[in-house]
Amino acid sequence: MRAPALFLSLLLIPATAGAQDYLNCRFAPGWEQSGAIRQYVSGNLYDYKDGGAEGYLAYGFVRMTGIDCKSGANTLQIDVSEMADPDAAYGIFSANLDPAQPVARIGMGGQVQPQSASFAKGDYYVEIVEVAADPSANDTAMLQALAAKIESRLDGRVTPPEPLQWFPQQDLASVRMVPESVLGLRQLQRGFVAKYRQGQAFIVVEASPESAAAVLKALREHFAGASPAQIGDEAFEVKVPYLEGLCIFRKGRILAGYSNLPDASQAAIAAAKLAAYIP
Amino acid sequence: MASRTSRRSFISTGLSAGLLAPLAGATPAIGLLKPLDDPAPPNSPVKLTYKTLGRTGLKVTSVGFGCMITSDPSVVERAVDLGINYFDTARGYQNGNNERMVGAALGAKRKQIVLSTKSHAPDKAGMMLHLDQSLRELNTDYIDIWYLHGKDTPDQVPDELIEGQQLAKQQGKIRFAGVSTHSGQQQIVPWMVKKNVFDVVLAAYNFTMDASMDQAIDAAAKAGVGVVAMKVMAGGFRGLKPGNPLSQKLAQPGALLAALKWVVNKPGVATTVPSMTGMDQLDENLQAMQSPLSTGDRQILAAHLEQIGPLYCRMCGQCDGACKQGLPVADVLRCLTYADGYGQFALARERYLELAQAPGARCADCSACTVQCPHGVHVAARMTRAQELLS
Questions:
Q1: Cβ of A57 and B238 within 8 Å?
Q2: Residue B182 has what pLDDT?
Q3: Domain residues of chain A, as ranges?
Q4: Contact A58/B at CB under 8 A
Q5: Disulfide: which of A40, A138, B37, B122 matches A64 by Cβ 3.0-4.6 Å?
Q6: Of 3.20.20.70, 3.30.360.10, 3.90.1150.180, 3.40.1000.20, which CATH number belongs to A162-277?
Q7: Which of B230, B238, B278 lies at the smallest CB-CB distance from A181?
Q8: Whether A241 contacts chain B with CB within 8 A
Q9: Residue A141's CB: how many other CB atoms inside 10 A?
Q10: Which of 3.20.20.10, 3.40.50.970, 3.20.20.100, 2.60.120.260 would CATH assign to domain B11-304?
Q11: Which residues of chain B lie closer than 8 angstroms to A242, CB-CB?
Q12: What is the ipTM of this complex?
């Protein structure tokens, strides 16, 4: 068993060195590290995040590395979570962002507030929380600069998930990535949901046109009374409790549609507009 | 005195004797408030069972709804219409977005249900700020049960947090005060009973846990503290690597429902809050109220425990001090779980090296192991593997 142990110890070295690269309190002038670097994995994230851990796990949480920084009586908690893939990293970022506040151009997307900052880049989701002695302190500029320095040391994609570009922008209230059961339907395993002033749109990217067709068939059978619609490669519309007017179409390996409109025909009209944006 | 009966033998006993746990209504009701006369919706197509939530007097469905990772409000709306009447969220879930979703989903039906949320704030000022935010996001003027979030030891509950809950009661912003706990139940639940200022405990409780947990839960219920169970499906399995035996076992057909039924049928537990993201999960979980824990369910759970038994340390603490070389057995096995269960060798090794151990102590040096795990973990073999892998 010595050889595997040696191999494992070699694997540890770059992981630790990487964390030191992007976790440095001195990225923010006047701040010093307090305590050791902390690490969590899916098995012990409850120790740190309590029940909130399940939210991370739903997005394919792999591991978290973090440090605390001190400046006088103020503390910064910096946590960098590695997620399953960039879409999942963007997903947890989008689930946690405040829709009433603007999104900043950090990595794939970020948000900076007076005492907190967060962003996603590549597989990473970064959270910075300040515990300030003065609850009314506004450290937006410091947090913006710190987030930028951490972001510059993380590898990975800086463009948001492509499907987000396909949602019509008019009356768009919020977008998020849903890790499972889009619209509460188990068949739609993972996708993007855009909330509008009225109704919501969704996009699910399947592995292949064949698998997308199979899911659409299962959904059509699930909803009694569904009638065909002329959108994309195939589509149906229906009015059902809770999702109200609903239209789902397939375009290649993409499943998309509209729900929660007053009737099925309105959902079909909105879905047709969405289909026009999808390549 | 804590029973030494293991969960496995308990389930086996139940199987051989054909015992079934008492159903709804077994929890003592110490009603300070008049409960709803008829909490059932008039046209619910499913059979619902109700229990009294301790001294609150609230009649709650024995299956509730954990909203934490629910994305679509339609699932919450349908659960309300089907008659589920206990819904749980927290200020910290998705940075407040979860409360916002729940508030929007409940809408005008909010007063039909029992709503709980939580604050993780460390001080009174912070928790009162959280409470006002929760009320705003949930679009309500009162919270039925307000928990102090994730408290595992009494010293995590300073007096100022208790004062905050009492103040919120006086202000009419909350009806009842509670504490949620993930891993310190055997310590904090008896403390809560003794403190006599908490109405409800939300505790991790499932079929894999030691029998002493049953005693803590039953004692709380008998004292009038309402018990809400979470992680009822041995929570945390979501995070296991694909292919891990623990997740594979709970993925078996019927296993999750059997685990839920096990808790629903515990007389000391008033309700449960399984997470639900989709309509299918909702339908499946409702089945836990349709029929009692069956012999088949017990067989599934017993088989599950049998298979994970040799590997899975439940951190019951019964092996503390049992190693004649002074090795911290439970801590070492937990490190090994990080490596074997979660594939995180770096963390496993780091935590292993942090443990205070006698230098050079090795399981291979002993001719026989002095540690006998009541749950059947093969201690010597697992310790040896940990030493080979992580030293």
A1: yes
A2: 79
A3: 14-152, 162-277
A4: yes
A5: A40
A6: 3.40.1000.20
A7: B278
A8: yes
A9: 10
A10: 3.20.20.100
A11: 74, 77-78
A12: 0.84
Q: Which of B182, B240, B347 sits opposite A46 (nearest CB)?
A: B182
Q: In chain B, positions 227-286, which contact chain A (CB-CB < 8 Å)?
A: 230, 235-236, 238-240, 275, 277-281
Q: What is the pLDDT of residues B11-69, one digit of tens each?
A: 544 444 333 333 333 333 333 333 344 566 656 678 899 999 999 999 999 999 999 88
| DSSP summary character for residue A157 | -
Distances (CA, A) of B36 to B52, B85, B247, B286, B305: 10, 11, 40, 21, 39
More confident residue, A211 or B46: A211
Nearest-CA residue of chain B relative to A4?
B389
Of the candidates A42, A183, A193, the beta carbon closest to that of B342 is on A42
For residue A10, the surrounding DSSP H or E stretch is helix A2-22
Are the beta carbons of A77 and A131 closer than 8 angstroms?
yes
Q: Does B72 contact A178 at a Cβ distance shorter than 8 Å?
A: yes
pLDDT tens per residue, range B97-116: 999 999 999 999 999 999 99
What does the alpha-carbon distance between residue A177 and residue A182 come to, in Å, rounded to a whole number?
9
Is beta strand B59-61 parallel, antiparallel or unpaired with respect to B65-66?
unpaired
Q: Please give the CATH number for the structural domain made up of A14-152.
A: 3.40.1000
Averaged pLDDT for residues A78-99? 95
Question: In the A/B pair of chains, how many CB contacts fall below 8 A?
Answer: 142
A52: closest chain B residue by CA: B93
Residue B236 pLDDT:
40
Q: What is the mean pLDDT of chain B?
A: 82
Give percent above pLDDT 90 in chain A.
79
Q: What are the structural domain ranges in chain B?
A: 11-304, 329-390
Q: DSSP letters along B34-84, please?
A: PPPS--S-TT-SS---EEE-GGG--EEESS-EE-TT---HHHHHHHHHHT-
